[in-house]
Amino acid sequence: MVDHQLAQDGTFIRGKNKSTSVYVIILGIFVGLGGIAHGVFETLQGNTPTGGYLLDIGVFTLIPNYLITGIAAIIVGLVVIVWTIGFIHTKNASIIFLALSILLFCVGGGVAQVLFFILAWGVSTRINNPLAWWRKVLPKNTRKRLAQFWPTMLVSGFLFLCVAVGIWLILSPPNTTYRAPTIIEYVLWLFLAIGILLQPLAIVSGFARDIERQSA
User: Fold this and answer.
1) What's the pTM value of the predicted model, to 2 decimals?
2) Which stretches of the chain score pLDDT less than 50?
3) Best label site of 7, 24, 32, 71, fewest CB within 10 Å?
């Protein structure tokens, strides 16, 4: 049975910890879209053999064909998104999300996705959790400050990640041949690093916001 809270306007909030749930949904969509983006590029290579399991375009696949790998990555990426949006708050949903994400990795969804789907899975296990440990660790005044900064941390973290992905898709798409990094790629990595570093702040501030809501 999923624990629900009643909002001030009388509507039910999905899951006990709304801010944590929102974070996981956004990150889950990010993982799914990343897999789809890789899948689209792979399909563009045509019905050709991959020549191996770990490809130069930053993906691992058990399917020795670019076209089939790409189609599989697109389908599994869509399933990850649907599952995250519709079911991540339900019982055992975290395990299924992890299984789908591992499958996405195995069919060409991208090596870099591993960090994000492990992070999303870990945080998803806290959606229906009372967060008692965090309540003890975070002093009340600190929780209030973090809770206030949660929207800023959330938006900033994903904004940097989205800009990095946008640069990758538009200005520096995957390349099957080696070449020296360009200034554009250094900018991409900078935005990606900042986005990743902001994720823990978004997570902890989300926990603080949920604890404050539970205490209200």
Assistant:
1) 0.87
2) 1-14
3) 7
